[in-house]
């Protein structure tokens, strides 16, 4: 089994990130969302990194098998976006956990105090994963004002980092 490596996003991986995320959303979970609905995926550096957040990818032998993004919000808050792992790298392979640990470590080093995220009701395993990693269910109405709500998201979480 090849080793999973987590690295900060590099432009050369843009198409692989799109090829990872779209089929998971559309085919695996039947979410009605297209690349046109997610222009941030074609501008990761501009949308995530240059705005004070970050974006990481999980690689196995040069192939993108996971992703996670951090959006910088006001008041020492951050939002987790675009967390995906290829089906064969979920569970015991720990790709999601490695990505989340990388993001949380970065947040603690950079003075973030809270993380927020939204997900889709059908993603039950993702919800279980977040709860297992210290996130608590949160009301949509209580999300930070500068958190960008996605139409498809129906379940929300918060995690205190301090």
UniProtKB/TrEMBL annotation:
PROSITE patterns xref list: GNAT
Q: Report if keyword Oxidoreductase is assigned.
A: no
Q: Name one Pfam family in it.
A: Acetyltransf_1
Query: Which InterPro entries does the record match to this protein?
Result: Acyl_CoA_acyltransferase, GNAT_dom, NAT_camello-type
Membrane-crossing ranges are none
Domain N-acetyltransferase, which positions? Answer: 4-162
In the UniProt record, does the keyword Transferase occur? yes
Query: Which controlled-vocabulary keywords does the entry list?
Result: Transferase
Kindly provide the name given to this protein in its UniProt entry: GNAT family N-acetyltransferase
